[in-house]
Fold:
Amino acid sequence: MSPKMNVSDPTAEEIKSLILEKAIDRFVRYGFGKTTMVEIAKDCGMSAGNLYRYFESKFDIGVGVAQQYISQAEQILRDVLQRPGLSPIQRLEAFVLEKLKFMHSHIVEQPNVQDLVNYILDERWDLVERHRDVQNSLMSEILSEGNRSGEFKVADVDHTANTIYAMTTKFRLPHFIKNITIEELELEAKSVVDLMIQGLKG
Structure:
């Protein structure tokens, strides 16, 4: 008779999730650069050798943490597209404002995460490009909805989505928004959106 499986043993994915959770806590408190694999392993209640079974380096953990942040941001933007009762104009404004609020709450109010952001910008630009493509795809859906409703007159939705991405860059990058209150930033973002809307109406 084969031995019974211990159903309480965590899976590899559960262990990876725990490692990322503990790493986020450390990065927020001390910064990416000042955190070591030994410290993350200790926080997880495991040896550093065991930690290396799941992540080859601190930089791989950093990428995993960044991917979690990106996934959260993308889900928030997808939720905007599913939010009932919004016109395309209201959806576009909500799209810009929700991303701004996400960046402000997760990056600006957690300054020790800045060096992780810098690492991703310097070493993993592919993640930034992929996130840009997702945002542009979602924005294209909003523009297409506006064309169907008659609120917008956009000849090339993909090109226009990319232009909107460029126009709203300030509201996504920490070094542009870290010294400004969220209230001031929201007012500025709304003004930019108002200008864009005038152009989208044709």
In short: The mean pLDDT is 92.
